[in-house]
Amino acid sequence: MTNGDEPGPTPRRASAWVILAVVAAALLVCCCSAAVGLLIAWSAGLFHAPT
Q: How far apart are CA 7 and CA 15, in angstroms?
């Protein structure tokens, strides 16, 4: 199924790197959004002791 220019393992290895990059980007976005949410909650006073 591969042509003469691309050996068999190379596309599979490239797709593994793409999947790894997508997972890393998703984790980064998730962590950043969680940090922003915590910052907004902190600034709104949700973590302060009730008086």
A: 14
The pTM of the whole model exceeds 0.70: no
Q: How far apart are CA 41 and CA 35, in angstroms?
A: 10
Using an 8 Å Cβ cutoff, are 28 and 22 in contact? no
Region 22-49 average pLDDT = 93
Q: How far is CA 3 from the centre of its chain?
A: 33
**Spatial separation of the C-alpha atoms in residues 31 and 8, rounded to whole Å:** 36
Query: Which positions ≥6 away from 43 have C-beta within 8 Å?
Result: none
